[in-house]
């Protein structure tokens, strides 16, 4: 019997790396969230509860480290 390959939906994240597509989830009347893969957080050296900045760039969102 031939094995069926499973293809996951992926999206490009800056660089050559691909990650699973993420869903936008509503948490209240005015707030939404998107989860970020643990491996990506570790690669960036980010920690839990770290402050980040979310900026709009055209039709994209950029999440970057917040620096005082």
Fold and architecture overview:
There is one protein chain. With 68 residues, the chain is mainly beta. It has a domain of 42 residues. The protein is built from 1 helix and 6 strands. It has a two-stranded antiparallel ribbon with strand order 1-2. A two-stranded antiparallel sheet has the order 3-4. A two-stranded antiparallel ribbon has the order 5-6. The longest helix is centred in the middle third of the chain and has 7 residues. The protein starts with 9 loop residues before the first strand and ends with a strand.
Q: Please report the total strand number as a whole number.
A: 6
Strand order of the largest sheet: 1-2
Q: What percent strand?
A: 25-35%
Helix content: 10-25%
Mean pLDDT over the residues:
82
Overall shape? globular
Order of helices and strands: EEEEHEE
Compute the CA-based radius of gyration.
Answer: 16 Å
Low-pLDDT regions: none
Largest sheet: 2 strands, antiparallel
Structural class: mainly beta
> What gap, in angstroms, lies between the N and C termini?
59 Å
């Amino acid at each position: 019997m031939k094995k069926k390959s499973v293809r996951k939906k992926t999206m490009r994240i800056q660089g050559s790396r691909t990650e699973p597509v993420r869903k936008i989830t509503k948490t209240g009347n005015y707030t939404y969230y998107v989860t970020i893969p643990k491996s990506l957080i570790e690669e960036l050296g980010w920690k839990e509860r770290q402050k980040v900045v979310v900026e709009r760039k055209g039709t994209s969102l950029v999440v970057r480290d917040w620096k005082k």
